[in-house]
Amino acid sequence: MSNPITPVEQLDAEAARAELERLAREIAHHDALYHGKDQPEVSDADYDALKQRNDAIEALFPDLIRTDSPSQRVGAAPAGIFSQVTHARPMLSLDNTFSDEDVADFVASVYRFLGNLPDQSIAFTAEPKIDGLSMSIRYENGRLTTAATRGDGTTGENVTANILTIKEIPRTLPAGVPEIVEVRGEVYMAKSDFLALNAQMEAEGKQTYVNPRNTASGSLRQLDPKVTASRKLRFFAYAWGEMSQMPADTQFGMVETLREWGFPVNPLMKRLSSTAEILEHYHAIGLQRADLDYDIDGVVYKVDRLDLQERLGFRSRSPRWATAHKFPAEQAFTKVEAIDIQVGRTGALTPVARLEPITVGGVVVTNATLHNADYIEGIGNSGERIRPEEHDIRVGDTVIVQRAGDVIPQVLDVVLEKRPVSAEKYVFPTKCPVCGSHAVREKNEKTGKLDSVTRCTGGFVCRAQAVEHIKHFVSRNAFDIEGLGTKQVDFFFESEDDALKVRTAPDIFTLKKRQESSTLTKLENIDGFGKVSVKKLFDAIDARREIALNRFIYALGIRHVGETTAKLLARSYGSYAAFEEAMKAAAPRAGDAWNELNAIDGIGEVVAASIVEFYKEPRNLEVVARLIDEVTPLDAEAPVTSGSPVAGKTVVFTGSLERFTRDEAKARAEGLGAKVAGSVSKKTDYVVAGPGAGSKLDKARELGVAVMTEDEWLELIGG
Q1: Which of 187, 252, 308, 400 is the most buried (most CB within 10 A)?
Q2: How confident is the model at residue 551 (pLDDT cuts 50, 70, 90)?
């Protein structure tokens, strides 16, 4: 198993950043196996756990969303054995929900975004989520012309010849259909057909198949259509891509139209009006799951009216108007053999349960996160008791573990009846196990409450924190230095040789010079390097002596500053010199520089205070100064202003908006290239004021900022 992982609710920004990087890499690996090779290594539940953890972290730290995040992409790139097809409309995936509460939140989010609609006035469709292979089938003038897999959502594989072997898919459509029709749905293999195929393979002495989904996917992606034809594949239609004319104005009506055109559609699809009805149908489908002749892994909910779908729009890879409610993950029982402490880059001490090996969701696991000292005692983040007092976690305890939101299991509870007499209460350390510095729980200045996380106070004195900082600095979305992976960073950090050691980021850029002047220790003579690899490493380092401003800011490792926040800062200040000058001038919670920083939408007081604190620390300034001697952060590119009257402008929305909800207004403005701020400053270009506007409107008038009504704003942006 991989190293234990801090639970989502206990992550700080730095740990979240590192975790999102790991998840992006691991999920991409599984996507390539699942979508590109039909050879998954993990179960659907385990894969969902990875995606759910990634989404949960991004929800808590939206400023950390990566450009290669699983939430920013769909599937995997085509494998290359088929010609490629570019989808006329992207084939996006759905967000997942895992509980009744999540579904209620989804429904509530739809009402919040649309605003001013009475309860139960929005209808939703609910249908089984088929566990098959997504497919887009294009018809022109009623004739099937192309069929393509989802691929990466933008480009798929051309499997037209193989799709033509599936009898359930019409070759031609009835007279009167639109000129262009793209029907989307799921290719699958029925359970009964799968069992029959395996019985045939076994009788012939051949290897049997693992499950219907992989078999269907592998069958469809055969180079010889005759092989595909020999496997009985089926199809459910449930969506559409490009349509030259829409034959219906609701989701339900469109699926009914697809049925009338000759496509199989799922008979369990219903149109419902309340959260209670939706959940009732979900549980009813769950009860039927074992008896269905096809595999499903959840239920999909969609807003029924297409005009509301259009208003709700899309996130980067998924629609706001739909979600997939997945069936529950698995639980298991095992024993706690030991409790260890891991120290992260920010000094967080995370307790980890070493488990007696147990299989959960098809994977053998040996570690489980115990979150923090409070969680071991059975206390939640808000001080509430989440387990009975006597259910503290001890070495020797039998515990219930679950793989739901974490890559490794989370300990849910203790089976008190099986607690051994020798089990003693766990005493959380007050000193860092790596450097021996005091380990403390910081106090929140606003609430007066202790932080749930215990942190080492050693800072860069603590080797665990210092080495993790270097790893962050060279990571993909920071300086991205090829050849400086975890193994190499550990080697250079641990070296005591002046010609080799790298203890801070600037040391990376002086390494070549130190090597050239060294007469003793040559890197090329050390096992694992060699002359060619050393040259490549130094070339990679030199290639990063100029770097984008947002990458430079992100690489500094400032607490709470992720990739998205770094981009906001780069865009707002334009150059590193301007950024550094402003940060040095910004006194916490006072002055123009502080107000300007805090006004950037997506920053907030916690992030702003963390940045200002970073630039008040002399050691940080010394490291950054040495770094600037070696590298040049490039000025941020000015925003493109052509085509949009508000591109690059800063706008503040205030008051009770009547023509659109706040979320809708923000999404529209950002889509046009504007920056949406949370407060008014000298750099604000427009304030859009609805009824009840207060202090922000007063501030705008005081500063002479242009103020407009909602109607005037709509007129400016073109309605």
Answers
A1: 187
A2: very high
Residue span(s) of the chain under CATH 3.40.50.10190 come to 650-717
What tens digit of pLDDT does each residue of 200-234 get?
887 877 766 767 877 888 888 777 788 788 888 99
The secondary element (H helix, E strand) that includes residue 440 is strand 439-443
Active site (catalytic) residues: 129
Q: Do the Cβ atoms of 400 and 409 come closer than 8 Å?
A: no
Q: Which residue stretches of 149-303 are H helix?
A: 160-163, 191-203, 212-220, 225-230, 251-260, 275-288
Q: Which long-range contacts (CB under 8 A, 24 or more apart) does 421-424 make?
A: 422/396, 423/394, 423/395, 423/396, 423/397, 424/394, 424/395
Q: Which CATH superfamily is 548-634 part of?
A: 5' to 3' exonuclease, C-terminal subdomain (1.10.150.20)
- Amino acid letter, 541: I
pTM above 0.85, yes or no: no
Give the tens place of pLDDT for each residue, 103-157. 999 999 999 999 878 888 999 999 999 988 999 999 999 999 999 998 878 888 8
Q: Which residue has the tokens 């800072």?
A: 459
HSE-CB of 53 using CA atoms within 13 angstroms: 30
Q: What are phi and psi of 149, to 5 degrees?
A: -70, 170
Q: How many CA atoms lie within 13 A of 489 on its CB side?
A: 21
For the chain, where do the domains classified as CATH 1.10.150.20 start and end?
Answer: 548-634
Burial of 463 (0-12, 13-18, 19+ CB in 10 A): middle
Dihedral angle computed from the Cα positions of residues 245, 250, 253 and 254, in that order, rounded to the nearest 10 degrees: 40
Asked: is 650-717 a CATH 3.40.50.10860 domain? The reply is no
Q: Quick one: which of 98, 125, 99 has its CA closest to 110?
A: 125
- Phi then psi for residue 330, to 5 deg, are -95, 160
DSSP letter for 271, please. E
DSSP secondary structure string for all residues of 8-60: GGG--HHHHHHHHHHHHHHHHHHHIIIIISS--SS-HHHHHHHHHHHHHHHHH
- Residue by residue, DSSP assigns 58-107 as HHH-GGG--TT-GGG--S----SSS-EEE-SS------EE-SHHHHHHHH
The correct answer on CATH 3.40.50.300 for the domain covering 84-326 is no
